[in-house]
Write a structure and sequence with these properties.
The chain has 89 residues and is an alpha+beta fold. Helices cover 21% and strands 35% of the residues.
């Protein structure tokens, strides 16, 4: 099996328009997942209170690479903050 490599060791850019589901977040009286695009889900997570941020789970349509070694398609709690730092302006 061939290994994927990127020029200069940089992972591919994040597709902020892909589908993502922000889960374990209470909306009204129920914890209902919200399916939206990745950028909107990460921005919504930023506005949550600390307890909800800690419980939140973000599931992506396909993996993203924050480092070349590890593609991820699920982020939980403060791990979502890793994506906040990469949000487009």
């Amino acid at each position: 099996m061939a290994e994927a490599t990127w020029g200069e060791g940089k992972p591919p850019s994040i597709d902020w328009k892909m589908s993502a589901s922000l889960e374990n977040v209470t909306r009204g009286d129920a914890a209902v997942p919200e399916v939206t695009n990745l950028e909107a889900a990460v921005r919504e997570w930023q506005d949550l209170d600390p307890a909800m941020k800690a419980d939140a789970v973000l599931k992506l349509e396909r993996p993203v690479w924050l480092t070349p070694e590890m593609p991820l398609d699920t982020f939980a709690g403060d791990g979502i903050g890793d994506l906040v730092r990469m949000l487009p302006a």
